[in-house]
Specification:
With about 90 residues, the chain is of the alpha+beta class. The protein has one domain: Thrombin, subunit H, CATH 2.40.10.220. It is about 20% helix and about 50% strand. The protein has 1 helix and 6 strands; from the N terminus they run ββββββα. The chain has a 6-stranded antiparallel barrel with strand order 1-2-3-6-5-4. It is globular, with a radius of gyration of 12 Å.
């Protein structure tokens, strides 16, 4: 599991299970499936990224999103962050 990362949706959120395709957002607010929002995530060494995120499903403590139209620079920054966190846990 990658995370937590600080994030901003409408409020501050925590981001978990980050990968190139999406993440889980820990939030007291729910987002109905299909809702598209702008999500900012602090990738620590890689800085802040901004992605369009579509809500997929909700759980008790948040909801899962998939990223839409991620540009190549943002994708590379996510991949480096995930790889670094994976190597760090070994």
């Amino acid at each position: 599991m990658t995370g937590p990362f600080d994030g901003l949706l409408e409020d501050r959120v925590l981001v978990y299970d980050l990968n190139l395709g999406g993440c889980f957002i820990n939030s007291p607010h729910q987002s109905p499936g299909g809702t598209v929002s702008i999500l900012r995530i602090n990738l620590l060494d890689e800085g802040w990224i901004t992605v369009n995120a579509e809500a997929l499903y909700s759980l008790q403590h948040g909801f899962a999103v998939r990223f839409l139209d991620v540009d190549s620079d943002t994708a590379a920054r996510i991949e480096r962050t995930v790889a670094t966190r994976r190597d760090w846990r070994r």
